[in-house]
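TASK: fixed-backbone design
INPUT:
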């Protein structure tokens, strides 16, 4: 297990041009996946009109992709570690690009939905492979930089996604959102082929754990479907209860299966037993509940209470998403200098403070009153996600890098689904939108405080006194 108490040696090692180009290719791959989550959101009304379908159908352009991605990402991570991250990236990119073109040419909504589901398969192979290759490219002393590059690129992709999607929809066609993925994916494949050396996959058991894949996929699919449909059908609807029962049985059964699968387990025993990795994943699960809720309900408030357009609401998120992207890039060097504990805890504290600030939203709150909360939240997201991803991945052996990154990202998706379900239930039960958002964000703040406690107690090892003194000294000097 990697030592997370102190930044590793080698922090001063210079990066070669080939390494920098490889990191650029990985950043572009992350950007494509992250941008894809948000750019189509503003195009849904145009797609709904073009195909003559209801919003309940067209929403699966987003939900279906996210669900397939979330269900298969752990499998993608394990396969990348077993058979090679380059191979997984090439296959995933080819699937993603091919079905992006199919989606752009689709004659009806069902072809679009089918293409989006298969794009989710490609994304589930790409993301953990990108994570593993990014951490492999850098020396251990610069591990924090890997997390910063990945999450910074993701933040930038999420931030500009609504702007790119809105501009293409307004001035060309929503179809160009799909077509744009092709040249970017080709560039990523060519640079990766040229720059990144062939990796040495896990030399252990190479047999695929089909039973584990099937049971875990069934459990995650049932859970995500229940969380997605619960607000529409009602949490006590027999179908929702049935899905939750299936999820609990499948995920419990998965635990038993993995103990018996030995070295060929989808999630090997050393991953399941790693205490630091477990608590890092749990903190991500809790924090993602509030981050996804902010992404949904802040634009809702801007559009329904402040009369913003879809593109205007996307631009309105820039204080949060822009600072998320910038801070993610800065978090890498800070992680290397001060260690995991300080940076992850600081990010968690900022997330908690941001949600409590946003919970003060009133019925007639102007946009300017949202900016402080969004800014604090954005800084917290940038510090927290990049640093805790690094802390979780480096807690395990390097051969588990893609799998570790996949599990952490799965916790983001699952936490986001749980958070959206919880927040929606709170919002719709209130008499006004602003009251509902205020109450929901207050609950989110409590969840963030719980995650903060977990981080402070369990994640990142012990704080080095010299690092803390240096941080205090630097703060006073700048003050």
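OUTPUT:
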């Amino acid at each position: 297990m990697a030592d997370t108490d102190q930044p590793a040696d080698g922090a001063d090692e210079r990066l070669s041009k080939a390494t920098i180009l490889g990191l650029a290719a990985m950043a572009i791959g992350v950007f494509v996946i992250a941008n894809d989550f948000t750019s189509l959101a503003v195009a849904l009304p145009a797609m709904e009109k073009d195909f003559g379908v209801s919003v309940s159908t067209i929403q699966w352009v987003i939900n279906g992709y996210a669900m397939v991605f979330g269900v298969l990402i752990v499998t993608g991570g394990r396969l990348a570690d077993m058979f090679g991250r380059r191979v997984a990236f090439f296959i995933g990119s080819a699937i993603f690009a091919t079905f992006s073109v199919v989606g752009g040419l689709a004659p009806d909504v069902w072809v679009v939905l089918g293409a989006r589901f298969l794009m989710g398969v490609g994304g589930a192979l790409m993301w953990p492979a990108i994570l593993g290759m990014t951490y492999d490219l850098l020396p251990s002393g610069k591990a924090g930089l890997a997390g910063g590059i990945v999450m910074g690129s993701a933040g930038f992709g999420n931030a500009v996604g609504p702007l790119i999607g809105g501009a293409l929809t307004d001035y060309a066609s929503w179809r160009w959102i799909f077509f744009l993925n092709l040249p970017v994916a080709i560039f990523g494949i060519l640079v990766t082929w040229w720059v990144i050396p062939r990796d040495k996959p896990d030399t252990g058991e190479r047999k695929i754990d089909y039973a584990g894949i099937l049971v875990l996929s069934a459990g995650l699919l049932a859970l995500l479907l229940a969380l997605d449909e619960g607000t529409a059908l009602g949490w006590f609807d027999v179908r929702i209860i049935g899905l939750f029962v299936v999820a609990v049985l499948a995920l419990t059964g998965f635990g038993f299966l993995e103990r018996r699968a030995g070295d060929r387990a989808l999630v090997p025993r050393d991953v399941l037993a790693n205490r630091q990795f477990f608590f890092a994943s749990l903190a991500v699960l809790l924090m993602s509940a509030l981050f996804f809720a902010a992404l949904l309900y802040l634009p809702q408030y801007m559009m329904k209470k402040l009369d913003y357009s879809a593109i205007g609401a996307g631009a309105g998120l820039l204080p949060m998403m822009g600072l998320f992207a910038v801070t993610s890039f800065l978090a890498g060097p800070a992680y290397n200098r001060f260690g995991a504990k300080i940076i992850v805890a600081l990010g968690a504290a900022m997330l908690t403070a941001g949600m409590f600030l946003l919970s003060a939203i009133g019925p007639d709150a102007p946009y300017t009153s949202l900016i402080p909360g969004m800014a604090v939240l954005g800084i917290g997201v940038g510090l927290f996600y990049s640093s805790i991803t690094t802390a979780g991945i480096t807690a395990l052996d390097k051969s588990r890098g893609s799998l570790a990154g996949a599990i952490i990202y799965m916790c983001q998706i699952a936490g986001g689904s749980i958070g959206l379900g919880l927040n929606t239930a709170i919002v719709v039960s209130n008499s006004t939108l602003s009251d509902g958002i205020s109450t929901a964000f207050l609950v989110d703040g409590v969840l963030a405080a719980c995650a903060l406690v977990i981080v402070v107690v369990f994640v990142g090892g012990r704080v080095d006194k010299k690092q803390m003194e240096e941080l205090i000294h630097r703060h006073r000097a700048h003050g």
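COMMENT: Confidence is low (pLDDT under 50) at residues 1-12.
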